Amino acid sequence: MNLALWIAAGLLAAVALTGGVTKTFVPREKLAAAYGGGWTGEVGTAFVKTLGILELLAAAGLVLTAALDIAPVLVPVTAVCWVLLMVGAMITHGRRGESAFVVLNLAYLALAVFIAWGRFGPESFTG
């Protein structure tokens, strides 16, 4: 179980890192032209950059806090925050008729729920 949780956290951290780097460093106009990124053309640059920074923090919170044994309780807390972020992403993509991205976000949400459940429960870092 512990190994499965580490793998799930690593996968989700990779997703968060990729999304975070993209939203933080790629110009909003370029993001808006990309497949699935049209929503970025409808919001401000500061909002997109803020989401990017939050995703970078999520990547760190999902693996580094536990790997370095610095407040490992942040792993499940970060996973819960990721669930909330994915709900927002699913609503956004759903309103835009981008059902493939809704399903993808649902998969990320499921990974985050698994991590939160596992790390708050049977495989917490405190026990």
Core attributes:
globular, 0% strand, 127 residues, 5 helices, mainly alpha
Could you explain the architecture of this structure?
With 127 residues, this protein is mostly helical. The chain is built from five helices and no strands. The chain has helices at 2-25, 28-33, 45-67, 74-95, 99-120. Helix 1 runs antiparallel to helix 3, helix 1 packs across helix 5 (99-120) and helix 4 (74-95) runs antiparallel to helix 5. The radius of gyration is 15 Å and the shape is globular.
By helix and strand content, what is the structural category? Answer: mainly alpha
Number of helices: 5
Q: Describe the sheet with the most strands.
A: none
Total beta-strand segments: 0
Round the Cα radius of gyration to an integer and report it.
15 Å
Low-confidence stretches: none
The rounded distance between the terminal residues' Cα atoms is: 14 Å
Shape call: globular
SSE arrangement:
Blueprint: H1 2-25, H2 28-33, H3 45-67, H4 74-95, H5 99-120
Helix pairs in contact: 1-3, 1-5, 3-4, 4-5
Short description:
The chain has helices spanning 2-25, 28-33, 45-67, 74-95, 99-120.
